[in-house]
Amino acid sequence: MPTDKSGAIVGLLAGLAVGAVLGVLFAPNSGKRTRERISDKALDLADNVKDGFHSIKDNFNNGKQSLGGLKNQVVDNVKTKVNSVSQEFKEFRDTELEKAKSAVKNAADDANDAIQNA
Predict the structure, then answer these.
(1) Most exposed: 28, 35, 97, 108, by fewest CB within 10 Å?
(2) Residue 1 pLDDT exceeds 50
(3) H/E stretch holding 26
(4) What is the rounded CA–CA span in Å between residue 25 and residue 23?
Protein backbone atom coordinates (compact mmCIF):
# COMPACT_ATOMS: atom_id res chain seq x y z
CA MET A 1 0.00 0.00 0.00
CA PRO A 2 1.45 3.45 -0.86
CA THR A 3 2.70 5.69 1.93
CA ASP A 4 0.81 8.87 2.79
CA LYS A 5 2.60 11.81 1.15
CA SER A 6 -0.27 14.30 1.28
CA GLY A 7 1.37 16.38 4.04
CA ALA A 8 4.58 16.68 2.01
CA ILE A 9 2.65 17.67 -1.11
CA VAL A 10 0.67 20.34 0.75
CA GLY A 11 3.85 21.70 2.35
CA LEU A 12 5.63 21.80 -1.00
CA LEU A 13 2.72 23.58 -2.66
CA ALA A 14 2.46 26.11 0.16
CA GLY A 15 6.18 26.81 -0.05
CA LEU A 16 5.97 27.28 -3.81
CA ALA A 17 3.05 29.66 -3.41
CA VAL A 18 4.80 31.80 -0.79
CA GLY A 19 7.98 31.88 -2.84
CA ALA A 20 6.15 32.82 -6.02
CA VAL A 21 4.18 35.63 -4.36
CA LEU A 22 7.29 37.05 -2.65
CA GLY A 23 9.25 36.85 -5.89
CA VAL A 24 6.55 38.70 -7.80
CA LEU A 25 6.06 41.34 -5.10
CA PHE A 26 9.75 42.21 -4.94
CA ALA A 27 10.32 42.15 -8.69
CA PRO A 28 10.82 45.59 -10.32
CA ASN A 29 7.61 45.71 -12.40
CA SER A 30 4.66 48.06 -12.69
CA GLY A 31 1.56 47.52 -10.50
CA LYS A 32 -0.49 46.22 -13.42
CA ARG A 33 2.22 43.76 -14.47
CA THR A 34 2.71 42.65 -10.85
CA ARG A 35 -1.02 41.98 -10.46
CA GLU A 36 -1.01 39.97 -13.70
CA ARG A 37 1.93 37.92 -12.51
CA ILE A 38 0.29 37.34 -9.12
CA SER A 39 -2.87 36.25 -10.92
CA ASP A 40 -0.88 33.91 -13.19
CA LYS A 41 0.98 32.45 -10.21
CA ALA A 42 -2.32 32.00 -8.33
CA LEU A 43 -3.77 30.11 -11.30
CA ASP A 44 -0.63 27.96 -11.49
CA LEU A 45 -0.90 27.30 -7.78
CA ALA A 46 -4.57 26.34 -8.13
CA ASP A 47 -3.62 23.90 -10.89
CA ASN A 48 -0.85 22.45 -8.72
CA VAL A 49 -3.23 22.06 -5.77
CA LYS A 50 -5.79 20.39 -8.04
CA ASP A 51 -3.12 18.00 -9.36
CA GLY A 52 -2.01 17.24 -5.80
CA PHE A 53 -5.60 16.59 -4.78
CA HIS A 54 -6.09 14.22 -7.72
CA SER A 55 -2.87 12.43 -6.79
CA ILE A 56 -4.08 11.97 -3.20
CA LYS A 57 -7.50 10.85 -4.45
CA ASP A 58 -5.87 8.31 -6.80
CA ASN A 59 -3.74 6.95 -3.95
CA PHE A 60 -6.85 6.63 -1.80
CA ASN A 61 -8.75 4.83 -4.56
CA ASN A 62 -5.82 2.47 -5.14
CA GLY A 63 -5.74 1.68 -1.44
CA LYS A 64 -9.49 1.13 -1.44
CA GLN A 65 -9.19 -1.25 -4.40
CA SER A 66 -6.40 -3.13 -2.64
CA LEU A 67 -8.60 -3.55 0.44
CA GLY A 68 -11.47 -4.70 -1.76
CA GLY A 69 -9.21 -7.29 -3.38
CA LEU A 70 -8.00 -8.46 0.02
CA LYS A 71 -11.59 -8.75 1.26
CA ASN A 72 -12.53 -10.85 -1.78
CA GLN A 73 -9.52 -13.09 -1.22
CA VAL A 74 -10.43 -13.64 2.43
CA VAL A 75 -14.06 -14.37 1.51
CA ASP A 76 -12.94 -16.86 -1.13
CA ASN A 77 -10.60 -18.57 1.36
CA VAL A 78 -13.39 -18.83 3.94
CA LYS A 79 -15.79 -20.27 1.35
CA THR A 80 -13.19 -22.84 0.31
CA LYS A 81 -12.60 -23.88 3.92
CA VAL A 82 -16.33 -24.10 4.64
CA ASN A 83 -16.89 -26.24 1.55
CA SER A 84 -13.98 -28.49 2.50
CA VAL A 85 -15.20 -28.95 6.08
CA SER A 86 -18.74 -29.51 4.84
CA GLN A 87 -17.57 -32.23 2.44
CA GLU A 88 -15.48 -33.87 5.18
CA PHE A 89 -18.49 -33.85 7.52
CA LYS A 90 -20.72 -35.42 4.87
CA GLU A 91 -18.18 -38.16 4.25
CA PHE A 92 -17.81 -38.78 8.01
CA ARG A 93 -21.58 -38.84 8.46
CA ASP A 94 -22.05 -41.27 5.57
CA THR A 95 -19.30 -43.57 6.88
CA GLU A 96 -20.70 -43.58 10.41
CA LEU A 97 -24.23 -44.13 9.10
CA GLU A 98 -23.07 -47.16 7.10
CA LYS A 99 -21.28 -48.51 10.19
CA ALA A 100 -24.46 -48.06 12.27
CA LYS A 101 -26.61 -49.75 9.60
CA SER A 102 -24.16 -52.62 9.40
CA ALA A 103 -24.12 -53.00 13.20
CA VAL A 104 -27.95 -52.99 13.34
CA LYS A 105 -28.14 -55.54 10.51
CA ASN A 106 -25.57 -57.78 12.24
CA ALA A 107 -27.46 -57.51 15.53
CA ALA A 108 -30.73 -58.33 13.75
CA ASP A 109 -29.11 -61.30 12.00
CA ASP A 110 -27.66 -62.53 15.33
CA ALA A 111 -31.06 -62.15 17.00
CA ASN A 112 -32.77 -63.98 14.13
CA ASP A 113 -30.19 -66.80 14.32
CA ALA A 114 -30.67 -67.06 18.09
CA ILE A 115 -34.46 -67.27 17.67
CA GLN A 116 -34.20 -69.94 14.99
CA ASN A 117 -31.71 -72.00 16.99
CA ALA A 118 -33.73 -71.85 20.15
Answers:
(1) 28
(2) no
(3) none
(4) 6
